[in-house]
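[User]
Protein folding is very new to me. Any chance you could explain this protein sequence and its structure tokens? I have pasted everything here:
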Amino acid sequence: MFGISPLGWVHTLGSLPAIPAAVYMFVRYGRIVPRSTAGSVYLVSMLIGAVSVFLVAHQPVSYGIAVATLFFLLVGYGVGRFLKTGSAASYVETVFLTMTAFLLMVPTVSETLRRVPDGHPFVTDLKSPLLLGFQGGLVVMLIVGLSIQILYLRRKGKAAIV
């Protein structure tokens, strides 16, 4: 089904819970919160997805996305342990974990448009205007979302000082 191998299904189904977990945290907290139940689900799902890419990927860019995702994920989840909470750690954590959500959605959108509907996908070419439009929309969402998150963290930091 959809031309996905058994390992591809492990990759897809293993990383799938990260999407609703991220959406939930963005709506509820305005960012990905590592020290929460949803944050734990997100971490495990993202690790499964990023590591399994090395077993299923066919394009060299996929390996680069996986390595970047692992880097952002590990730094984003680890920075709070090394830096004092409320300092630069909140910014690094927020930016890096938001980047992981972006890096999750780029191939998710691309693969979905290239495989659905089964047998007659919406996109057959990586340079398709539809695919490029969706990817451009993701970039805009990343820029706007990060800007809002950083402004919120700055206001929150100033409120704590006053």
Remarks:
- The mean pLDDT is 92.
